[in-house]
C-alpha cells in the first residue's frame, strides 16, 4: 500500500476512496447481521460508508459497490474484533485527512468527509469503544479469542483489498 502515491493526485485519492468504500461496505453489510445492542454499541452511529459515498459524489465519480470478504465474521465477537480494526482506522484517518486536504479542491466538506471522521469526538468514541471491548473480552476467554480472530481477519482483508487497488 503506497499511501503517499495515492495522496499525490486527485485520481489516486479517488482510487483510495473507492477501495475503502468496497471493503467498508462489505463489513457494514456483514455487521448488520448481528445484534449490537447487547454490547451497547450504536452501530448506526459508527457507520462511515455514507461519508465515502459523499466524498466520491463530491468528486464526481461513482461509488464503488461492496466487495465480498474472504472470511466474514461468524459471530458477534468476531464482528466486534473486525469493528475494532474499522474503529481504529478513524485515528489514522485524522493523519490522512491532513494530507488529503493538501490536494487542491479537497476539504472537510468536499471530498474528505470520510477521513475527517467524527472530528473532535473521534478520541471520545474510540475510548468508549475500547471500554466495550474490554468488558466483552473480559467476560470469557472464548469471547476474547473470537475478538482477536475477527480483528486479525479484518486487518488482513484491508491489506488484501487495498493492496489489490494498487
**Uncertain stretches:** none
Structural class: mainly alpha
Number of helices: 8
**Would you state the CATH class?**
Mainly Alpha
Percent range of helical residues: 55-70%
For this structure, what is the CATH homologous superfamily?
Heme oxygenase-like
The fraction of residues assigned to DSSP E strands is under 5%
Q: Count of DSSP E strands?
A: 0
Order of helices and strands: HHHHHHHH
CATH architecture: Up-down Bundle
Radius of gyration computed on alpha carbons: 16 Å
Measured distance between first and last alpha carbons? 7 Å
The profile of the biggest β sheet is: none
Domain module count: 1
Instruction: Tell me, rounded to a whole number, the average pLDDT.
Output: 91
Overall 3D form: globular
List the helices and strands and how they pair.
Elements: H1 3-6, H2 10-31, H3 43-46, H4 49-58, H5 76-100, H6 113-116, H7 122-139, H8 141-164
Helix pairs in contact: 2-4, 2-5, 2-8, 5-7, 5-8, 7-8
Give the tags.
mainly alpha, Heme Oxygenase, Chain A, single chain, about 170 residues, about 65% helix, 8 helices
Structure, briefly:
The protein is an all-alpha fold and 166 residues long.
3D architecture notes:
The chain has 166 residues and is an all-alpha fold. It has a single domain, classed as Heme oxygenase-like (Heme Oxygenase, Chain A). The chain is 67% helix and 0% strand. The chain contains eight helices and no strands. Helix 2 packs antiparallel against helix 5 (76-100). The chain is globular. The mean pLDDT is 91.
